[in-house]
Specification:
The complex is a heterodimer. By secondary structure, chain A is mainly α. Chain A has 20 helices and no strands. By secondary structure, chain B is an all-alpha fold. Chain B folds into two domains: about 35 residues, no CATH class; about 35 residues. Chain B starts with a helix and ends with a helix. Classes of the chains: A mainly alpha, B mainly alpha. At the A-B interface, α1, α6, α17 and α19 of A face α1, α2, α3 and α4 of B.
Chain lengths: ~475, ~70
């Protein structure tokens, strides 16, 4: 076997290919990925319409998963709380805007992954040093672990609606997570998780059962009104929670690592964008549907401030009936399960990248003990905590979303610097318009975090700024 | 015999050909083991990283305060 020629393209791509014997060491991971890529090459070679559609089918995955994965338990709870407190109005276009922000950010991870073939944590470690590398990983791990707790809360609450005991609910979710992994193939894992994620759209029929006033929805999308109660600290908190529900650090780490693990190359970036846009559209539809589904609680003046997933479903029974409420509860279960799979995977990817251990869903158990252990133990630890009696679950949900918002600016700054790193990206550095858009998103998210800080530390300043 | 060599023996020639034909050079696991060099940061980039450190300290204080005040 002859090694491929060494192309002297730039100073960062001259890593030696040969092993000591002068040959390339092929790994199990390479073989699995090559099978997936061979199907892509075959589909690309055929120019028929069917082949084009098949090519899209082969190349979608990380974008849809990350967007629907972020429509997780606390996010859907946050959207339901938004609908029940503010009805149809300001928050419909606002949530749409947050998904556009997510699309702008996630597109950068596709380019970065395809151009460098490295995960986000690994690039931060390599390019900015061990301090920021370990910081990013620890920050991500803590944030992910807290978020995982909330996913199992959603699963427990959702299954609780059907009378399933908490320990059975939690064990069932862990079993699903394990089953998705058991093939040790990225492709199988991705397709199983995509199938589960499709159920996120269950919130659309739930919303239709409430017979939304479509003219009000249209008017809200154009005018961004009404905003009952005006702009206040509570409104800001809900806005922060909705931002936290859409743009979070784990998404950057997950999509970049999944892009690499799937084997997307520079040639596939266009499809990566389609994948991400499709995911954003589906996730936005599910999020807005959840707001619409819970909006009748606002018009009926039902206080839903401290509702959990199952309580929302119970409260909706008079509006959409038992079957509709059951669908809502099922949606919460799905949201928790898919997110627990994707979030624990992002922790495992980041760990493997920073600790220099094998990190791929294509590696067998014997090679990837550390990777799979981190993945499963994170989920199992969070699941165990949920079973502790008397845990302030609603408070945990709020803290998670706030932490996600606070941790986002550093993650975005690193993404921004990496995607503009000409040595890494070559011709794929962000164009000026993309940088302008990304800068707006970074500034907006940072401002959201700082405003929240002011509202907590110095409420009087906040009142001066316009809150009350 | 190295671990990599032992593993390679498990794959037949057709699989090796498939890997070489289907994967780009920088997608190979062996290549990915080599890391990118540290970036040399310039003035504004150093400033941004310091601003990040300050931001984090401030925000961590805010979150701790919020947790503490809620607990009391």
């Amino acid at each position: 076997m002859r090694p491929p020629s060494r192309r002297q393209t730039d100073s960062l791509s001259n890593a030696p290919v040969e092993t000591v014997s002068g040959e390339i060491a092929i790994t199990h991971e390479d073989v699995d990925r090559a099978h997936d890529r061979a199907r892509v090459s075959d589909a690309r070679a055929n120019k028929s319409l069917f082949s084009r559609v098949y090519l899209v089918w082969l190349l979608i995955g990380p974008g849809v998963l990350v967007m629907l994965g972020e429509n997780d338990g606390p996010s859907m709870l946050s959207y339901a709380a938004t609908g029940s407190r503010y009805g149809i109005g300001f928050f419909i276009p606002f949530v749409l805007l947050t998904f556009i922000m997510a699309l702008v950010v996630q597109e950068m991870t596709v380019r970065l992954g395809a151009a460098t073939q490295r995960g986000h944590a690994e690039l931060i470690f390599d390019r900015f040093g061990p301090f920021w590398g370990w910081f990013s990983m620890i920050d991500l791990t803590i944030g992910n672990f807290l978020t995982l707790i909330t996913e199992f809360i959603a699963i427990r609450a959702g299954l609780g609606f059907f009378g399933v005991p908490p320990w059975v609910a939690v064990l069932s979710a862990l079993a699903v997570l394990y089953l998705a992994l058991v093939s040790h193939r990225y492709w199988t894992w991705e397709r199983l998780t995509l199938a589960a994620a499709a159920f996120n759209l269950i919130f659309v029929p739930v919303a239709l059962l409430t017979h939304p006033h479509w003219r009000s929805v249209g008017a809200a999308l154009i005018t961004w009104k009404p905003l009952p109660g005006g702009f206040s600290k509570d409104t800001l908190l809900i806005m922060l929670a909705d931002i936290g529900a859409t743009v979070t650090p784990w998404m950057l780490f997950f999509q970049q690592s999944a892009t690499v693990d799937k084997g997307l190359t520079k040639r596939d970036i266009r499809f990566g964008r389609i994948d991400t846009a499709l995911g954003a559209a589906l996730a936005a539809a599910a999020a807005i549907a959840t707001i619409l589904a819970a909006a009748p609680l606002f018009t009926r003046h039902m206080s839903a401030e401290n509702f959990q997933a199952a309580e929302f479903a119970q409260a909706l029974v008079p509006v959409i009936g038992r079957w509709g409420a059951a669908l809502f509860a099922l949606g919460m279960i799905e949201a928790g399960i898919v997110a627990s799979i994707t979030i624990s995977t992002s922790s495992a990817y980041a760990f493997g990248e920073v600790a220099r251990r094998p990190h791929s869903l294509n590696i067998p158990w014997a090679e990837g003990k550390a990777f799979y252990s981190v993945l499963f133990l994170c989920a199992a630890g969070a699941a165990a905590i949920v079973l502790i009696p008397g845990l302030p679950l609603v408070y945990v949900v709020l803290v998670v979303n706030v932490i996600a918002v606070l941790a986002m600016p550093p993650a975005l700054v690193f993404l921004f610097m990496l995607v503009n790193d000409k040595e890494l990206m070559g011709d794929l550095v962000s164009p000026r318009w993309a940088n302008a858009l990304a800068s707006c998103v970074v500034v907006l998210l940072t401002a959201a975090g700082v405003l929240f800080g002011i509202s907590v530390v110095a409420p009087r300043w906040f009142e001066f700024l316009g809150g009350h | 015999m190295t671990k990599a060599k032992k593993e390679r023996i498990a794959f037949d020639a057709s699989e090796e050909q498939l890997v070489l034909a289907s994967l780009e050079r920088d997608q190979l696991t062996e290549v990915k083991k080599h890391h990118f060099p540290r970036r040399r940061l310039k003035g504004f980039q150093v400033f941004v990283l310091w601003a990040l450190r300050i931001y984090l300290l401030f925000m961590i204080a805010v979150v701790i305060y919020q947790v503490w005040s809620s607990a009391h």
